[in-house]
Amino acid sequence: MLPLSLAIGKWGIVGGQEAVPHSRPYMAFLKIKRCFEPVNTCGGFLIRDDMVVTAAHCRVKRSKGIVVLGAHNIRKKEPREPRSQKIRVRRWIRHPKYNKMTQNNDIMLLQLRKRAELNDWVQPIPLPHPWPEVPVGTRCNMSGWGWMQVNPAKSSDVLQDVVLEVMADEVCERNLTKPYDAKSMLCAGDPRGKKATLKGDSGGPLVCDGVPQGIVSWGPSNGASPEVYARVSRFVRWIRTVMKQANDQGASWEM
């Protein structure tokens, strides 16, 4: 069982289709660079003009990050993607109880160095209410730029969409080899086993009825279902606390 990003992560979207360009204005593409190493990537989503949510396991020590907003094709450069905005990460704020062994509390906030310009192509997505139950069988949308197949490896330049279903916690408890914590994790996938997320999709949102209920976290290394998402509603109060501290203390704030 692997985290779903980076060199060891959760991969891209299998069995999906190209998203309608700029139809997911909350989507963020995170490029993570450490000296003398290849660039790693994750997904994420904008919740405020200066805050992006992603997975905690996307953070690499002594690395620098750039968030790309408003892009559909991440390989194209301006002026081919004139709507895109590239903003450096000011601060990486992992959940204080993140456990890299179990992937519990796999959530991180990225404070941007400057505020994004909000427009038709860049918009924050509203957070869910704390602790709501997402009914089993709910159909949700997952978007990302990760791999579309494993062998041979093939990544996507353009944003891909896939529809997945929320599954009962017992499905993940029964089928996965790592411990599954129903309080902080959400189980989802394709009952037919034909759709999945793959490398490069970690940190992206599982959006149900217009709000992000999950964050791509970990699952089988071959992209099979079910897969595990951090349960966003579990962390809403922590997110709001962090954002308030950032407001109150400004650029000098540390956590």
UniProtKB/TrEMBL annotation:
Pfam families: Trypsin. One of its GO terms (molecular function) is serine-type endopeptidase activity. Residues 13-244 form the Peptidase S1 domain. The keyword Amino-acid biosynthesis does not apply. InterPro entries: Peptidase_S1_PA (IPR009003), Peptidase_S1_PA_chymotrypsin (IPR043504), Peptidase_S1A (IPR001314), Trypsin_dom (IPR001254), TRYPSIN_HIS (IPR018114), TRYPSIN_SER (IPR033116). One of its GO terms (biological process) is proteolysis. It comes from the Eukaryota. Keywords: Disulfide bond, Hydrolase, Protease, Serine protease, Signal, Zymogen. The keyword Transmembrane helix does not apply. This is Peptidase S1 domain-containing protein.
